Amino acid sequence: MDLQHFQQMIAAGEPLRGEEMIAFMREQSDNTRRLLFDLNNSYHTPEEIVALFSRITDSEVHESFRMFPPFYTDFGKNIHVGKNVFINSCCQFQDQGGIFIGDGALIGHSVVLATLNHGLTPEDRQNLYHAPIRIGKGVWIGAHATILAGVTIGDDAVIAAGAVVNKDVPTGAVVGGVPAKHIRNIDKDEKQ
Fold first, then answer.
1. Which pLDDT belongs to residue 190?
2. d(C-alpha 57, C-alpha 126), whole Å
3. Beta strands of the chain (E only): which ranges?
4. 8 Å CB contact between 146 and 117
5. Residue 191 predicted with pLDDT over 70
């Protein structure tokens, strides 16, 4: 198993199962944790954080990216961020299924993005099923929100603090609660 084969399996929607897959995911997790220890355990300039996050994601991250560590992920190689993205401290990304964050998104403290689920029945529980999370441009996700596998959040939407989002969120909507429900739409002309 290598990263390219893994990415092909993810793109094809194949479940993640078997000893070879488990060994690969553990190896990738170990490699990512080494980088996270560096990121999370000493001061880094914004430029150093961009460089470290580029290594964690194995892709070039734009210089406008900002993050307040600590940050946690168990894979890292399937996180994709646009320009001017801000991730606040203590976020946890389970990204094997793919996390796509649009330009100008703001992600609050302790947000969880989870792209994996275990099988429901006991005989299927060791198998992992995945679906990507897609976060549109200009989205604001409040502190302690959880976004579940397969959710797409439309551009300029707002996710209230503490929300658990298990369904797609339309462009310009405000959602909150457990599970998250539509609260209202954002009027582009309104002021705080």
1. 60
2. 26
3. 66-67, 71-73, 79-81, 86-87, 91-94, 99-101, 106-107, 112-114, 116-118, 128-130, 133-135, 140-141, 146-148, 152-153, 158-159, 164-165, 173-176, 181-185
4. no
5. no
Closest CA to 135 of 160, 116, 154: 154
CA separation for the pair 110, 15 (Å, rounded): 28
Structural contact between residues 140 and 159, judged by C-beta atoms closer than 8 angstroms: yes
Supply the pLDDT for residue 138: 98
* Catalytic entry in 5, 62, 118, 182: 118
* 51 in Cβ contact with 62 (< 8 Å): no
Residue 123: partners with Cβ closer than 8 Å, 6 or more residues away: none
Instruction: Tell me whether residue 130 is one of the annotated catalytic residues.
Output: no
Question: CA 150, CA 131: separation in Å to the nearest integer?
Answer: 5
Query: Which percentage of the chain shows pLDDT scores above 70?
Result: 97
| Residue 182 to residue 158: CA distance in whole angstroms | 10
